[in-house]
Design a protein that fits this description.
By secondary structure, the chain is mainly α. It contains 14 helices and 4 strands. Among the domains are: about 100 residues, 434 Repressor (Amino-terminal Domain) (Orthogonal Bundle); about 70 residues, Winged helix-like DNA-binding domain superfamily/Winged helix DNA-binding domain (Arc Repressor Mutant, subunit A, Orthogonal Bundle).
């Protein structure tokens, strides 16, 4: 799968950083990395290769989240392959070892800024965004309300919010997503994100309690494990979960989509330090 270029990811991260800190500039980034402003400008223009040895410093300086960091790793790897015939000979081995840990399926997501975290104030907003992509979708608040078991007024309001935020658009009388794959990166806990996960986790529990028949049981998967943990392995475990998440989403969304599901993954300590 072709990923974004390293410079595209760098530019996206720089713009996001500048939205949070108007005083942050390419020149300031250069000072942090001990690289010239001119060199970084050429990198962003595609005239110079991404400075791989400064990879970690760039991730820290631009506050790139874990998925963004994986996307950057994947992009750097592919840029190296494209510019090295010797490396291309190793592509098969790389596909079996390095790439599965990065999971390129997550690199296709368009990042949205923190100002759109308001969409997480209700699970309905993101559910409608995916419902719009279903082949059986009907651009009718009443139909949406029936499918999501919500009031029609809620469906109508959510549509207005999504269109106003530029996440949905109407072209030639048809409603569609402006970006097929969207994510909202964050490096710290945020109250609206917490609220969203709380709501969706609760809906999962409600589905489990209210739908106890065999057919419903086969339509969902709720599993969990308790395990003694070596804290030094947490980063690797998180990486594996992210990678697996991307693979599962790719499988679920293949072919003719007619339903909307939510996938939660929880990993948290039961013991106190």
């Amino acid at each position: 799968m072709k990923s974004k270029s390293p410079r595209a990811i760098l530019l996206q991260a720089l713009k996001r950083k500048q939205r949070k800190n108007k005083d942050f500039s390419l020149r300031l980034l250069g000072k942090k990395l001990r690289l010239s402003h001119a060199y970084l400008s050429q990198v962003l223009a595609g005239k110079k290769m991404f400075p791989q040895k400064h990879y970690k410093q760039i991730v820290e300086a631009l506050e790139i989240d874990e998925i963004g960091e994986r996307s950057l790793k994947y992009a750097i790897l592919f840029e190296s392959l494209e510019n090295s015939p010797v490396a291309m000979n190793c592509l098969e081995d790389l596909l079996k070892t390095v790439l599965p840990k990065i999971n390129p399926s997550l690199t296709k997501y368009t990042e949205r800024s923190e100002k759109n975290f308001i969409l997480h104030s209700s699970w309905v907003h993101l559910a409608i965004m995916d419902l719009v992509t279903c082949s059986n979708f009907q651009d009718d608040p009443k139909w949406i309300a029936k499918r999501l078991a919500i009031p029609t007024s809620t469906a109508r309001y959510s549509l207005e919010v999504l269109i106003e935020r530029g996440l949905l658009q109407r072209e030639n009388g048809k409603l569609s997503k402006t970006d097929l794959h969207v994510r909202f990166p964050t490096l710290e806990s945020h109250p609206l994100i917490r609220q969203y996960h709380r709501e969706t986790a609760l809906k999962g529990l409600q589905h489990m309690d209210k739908n106890t028949d065999l057919a419903s049981f086969k339509q969902r998967l709720i599993v969990g494990s308790t395990v003694a943990v070596n804290p030094d392995n947490l980063r690797e475990a998180r990486d594996l979960l992210y990678s697996s998440l991307g693979e599962v989403l790719s499988v679920l969304s293949a072919g003719d989509c007619t339903e909307v599901y939510h996938l939660n993954a929880l990993l948290f300590p039961l013991t106190k330090s």
